[in-house]
Amino acid sequence: MPEGPEIRLAADRVAAALVGRTTTRVSFDFNRLKQFEPLLTGCQVIDVKTRGKAMLTCFENDWVMYSHNQLYGRWYISPAGELPDTCRQLRAALHNADYCALLYSASDIEVMRLKDLEEHPFLIRLGPDILGEKPSPQEIVGRLQSKYFRNRQLAGLLLDQRFLAGLGNYLRAEILTAARLHPLTKPANCSERQLLKLARTIVRLTLRSYRTGGIINPPGLVKKLMAEGKSKKEDYRFNTYNRENQPCYFCGHEIESSNAGGRKMYFCPFCQARPEDAQE
């Protein structure tokens, strides 16, 4: 599933094509949304923003299109009148005189009044968005120490959108490795210094992923790996995620994996010491 940085990058592309322009046609693949097509056609798009993994396309008449890419959804931007060569199912299309913004393969799409956004069942459960509300490291530490989260294992906590919106599996793996915390560690068992390092790492790596298009490793390491002949993005993008049985770029030990809550988690057994009281 695309994580917060990927959705924010998609929103940037959609915004560049739509914001400040008036739609010439809006269409949906779902009968339940057909009633909104005339309401949105002929309206100017005034903003495209994100809340975690959800995108909000805002129109001048105070209507909003909510969309969540889920696992397979993807936005395409095309010149007006052109459609991409894809076998995907077109779910929503927003056209103007210059561009088309096309959402394929996603079914979680709604249209609602701007005033009703805060009552949306998904949005009301979200924690702060690193790329939206931009919580400070100190604010994140406060959440880690709260009664709601302090006794949760980090493996599950970093995927809980109520804690912070937009984090997912690859960010979880890379954040915990960089912060040198085992996935089964609980905030309650961390020092203030460890929690602050974790909070700063969450902010830094989320922003880095957004700015680099998903490259999490430090720029110096990426440059070194590319000089060594690693030309594919997947060879230098991550240190831990999806690199089971391969050497950690920081210490040389083999990356390990295990399952937590039905999701595979990756970690370095040397960089991330397992807490003594941890249970799978």
Can you give a write-up of this model?
This protein has a 4-stranded antiparallel beta sheet. It has a 4-stranded antiparallel beta sheet with strand order 2-3-4-8, with helices on one face. The protein has helices at 4-18, 37-40, 137-144, 154-157, 169-178, 192-212, 219-227, 233-236; strands spanning 23-28, 45-51, 54-59, 63-68, 74-79, 90-96, 99-104, 108-113, 256-260, 263-267. Helix 1 (4-18) packs parallel to helix 6. The model has no long low-confidence stretch (mean pLDDT 94). The longest helix is centred in the C-terminal third of the chain and has 21 residues, at 192-212. It has 2 domains: 4-125, Alpha-Beta Barrel (N-terminal domain of MutM-like DNA repair proteins); 137-267, Helicase, Ruva Protein, domain 3 (Orthogonal Bundle). With 280 residues, the protein is an alpha+beta fold.
Write a short abstract of this structure.
With 280 residues, the protein is α+β, with helices and mostly antiparallel strands. It has helices at residues 4-18, 37-40, 137-144, 154-157, 169-178, 192-212, 219-227, 233-236, and strands at residues 23-28, 45-51, 54-59, 63-68, 74-79, 90-96, 99-104, 108-113, 256-260, 263-267. The protein folds into 2 domains: 4-125, Alpha-Beta Barrel (N-terminal domain of MutM-like DNA repair proteins), CATH 3.20.190; 137-267, Helicase, Ruva Protein, domain 3.
